[in-house]
Amino acid sequence: MIEAFVLIIVKPGNEDLVYDKLNGVSQVKEIYKVYGEYDIILRVEVDNIKALDEFHDTVLRKIREIEMTETLIASSYGS
């Protein structure tokens, strides 16, 4: 299982629309609207890197209101 955090920048004024499109997606375990450089942060769980690639291709890249994403893969640091 891979856990990742996806930081999302949304086209201005479309934050609620993107939130609604991502809320309920099976891979998305948590979703937050945030203030600062990014607009939305997701916590995503997938089985492997290929599944993470598929999530990016079939979910994120199809939402036109998303301008940019940055994906951080979580590590347990020695556990």
UniProtKB/TrEMBL annotation:
Residues 6-74 form the Transcription regulator AsnC/Lrp ligand binding domain. InterPro entries: Dimeric_a/b-barrel (IPR011008), Tscrpt_reg_AsnC/Lrp_C (IPR019887). It holds the Pfam family AsnC_trans_reg. The lineage of its organism: Archaea, Methanobacteriati, Methanobacteriota, Thermococci, Thermococcales. This is Lrp/AsnC ligand binding domain-containing protein.
